[in-house]
Specification:
Layout (H helix, E strand, L loop, with lengths): L1 H14 L18 H13 L18 E2 L2 E2 H4 L2 E4 L8 E9 L3 H8 E3 L12 E6 L5 E10 L10 E8 L1 H13 L3 E2 L4 H8 L5 H12 L3 H11 L2 H25 L9 H30 L13 H12 L1
Parallel strand pairs: 3-9
Antiparallel strand pairs: 1-2, 3-4, 4-8, 5-6, 6-7, 7-8
Helix pairs in contact: 2-9, 7-8, 9-10
Pfam families: MnmE_helical, TrmE_N
Main location: plastid
GO cellular component, one term: cytosol
């Protein structure tokens, strides 16, 4: 009686939503087809076409198709990817990414020896020259050909002197040679659109760049390496296994032992606990990113400065 009632409830829940209908009524089959049937069910549940997933993003004129041309795949972008505004650094980087990154770099880069024959991940020393033949800066050119690059596009990085004047001159030369100025975060956007990163990894790239402590950097780096994504994949796989088990038992009730409701509830509880733990971790992650403001209060000469110095050394 309990199994029959459970079947009615499940079928009512899942058959009322045709978009995400995970249960279906198959024609009766002999018992010998049981295990093949369960494998087929799991394959159907795992199929990417079975669910109607959509990625909704704010429309960007650079990402829509114009005159049957995919702008993302046809535009080569360039930008300074090292920090500006602080004290001058020894080295700065101008990055190009897109289908014409190598050809644009070839128009501005002149190796000291021979003609430039770009080989992926092989460094070449030379100079950047503008359209008038003037030397702009001495650089190291590092081509990273698709798909072995951050964006999974052809990428060329020009390692220049870190002075802001040098970097902006090199960037302007690349733009004059045919590149388009990249928008903030566009390299990571392309990495996401090209499947190099998932959404959580892309978010953690920004968190790592903005990290103000070792703990925040470690947490962001773990996210980039797929820590949270692995949890989501695990939860999805366990849900599919559970749905497959329930469906098989509902369809072949006479050939299988009674359904173990307690076992099913235990699995659901474990998955629910994993979700709760992930939510708690997200709150801790927000604290790492924003930091914690505290005041050390006490009478004079009781060790407040010593405590602060000890914390500072530990943070280093």
């Amino acid at each position: 009686m309990a199994i029959a009632s459970f079947r009615i409830v499940l079928r009512h829940i899942f058959h009322t939503n045709n978009t995400h209908n995970c249960f279906f009524t198959p024609p009766p089959q002999p018992t010998g087809f049981l295990f093949n049937r369960r494998a087929t069910l799991r394959h159907r549940l795992l199929s990417t076409n079975y669910y109607s997933y959509k990625v909704v993003a704010k429309e960007d004129e650079r990402l829509v198709k114009n005159d049957n041309t995919d702008v993302v795949n046809s535009t080569t972008i360039a930008a300074i990817v090292t920090s500006l505004g602080g004290p001058p650094a020894a080295v700065g980087i101008v990055r190009l990414s897109g289908p014409h990154a190598v050809s644009i770099a070839g128009r501005v880069f002149r190796p000291v020896r021979n003609k430039w024959q770009p080989t992926s991940h092989v460094v070449e020393y030379g100079v950047v020259m503008d359209s008038d033949g003037n030397i702009v800066d001495e650089v190291l050119a590092v081509p990273m050909l698709a798909p072995r690059s951050y964006t999974r596009e052809d990428v060329v990085e020009l390692q220049c002197h870190g002075n802001e004047v040098c970097l902006r001159r090199v960037l302007r030369t690349c733009l004059e040679a045919g590149a388009t100025l990249a928008q903030p975060g566009e390299f990571t956007l392309r990495a996401f659109l090209n499947g190099r990163l998932d959404l959580t990894q892309a978010e953690n790239v920004g968190k790592l760049i903005a990290a103000k402590s070792v703990a925040a950097a470690d947490a962001a780096l773990e996210g980039i390496q797929g820590g949270f994504s692995s949890l989501v994949r695990s939860l999805r796989s366990r849900c599919i296994d559970l749905l497959t088990e329930i469906e098989a038992r509902l369809d072949f009730e006479d050939e299988m032992p009674p359904i173990d409701l307690n076992g099913i509830m235990d699995k659901i509880q474990h998955m629910s606990q994993d979700v709760e733990n992930a939510l708690e971790t997200s709150n801790y992650d927000k604290l790492l990113q924003s930091g914690l403001q505290i005041a050390i209060v006490g009478r004079p000469n009781v060790g407040k400065s010593s405590l602060l110095n000890a914390w500072s050394k530990h943070a280093e």
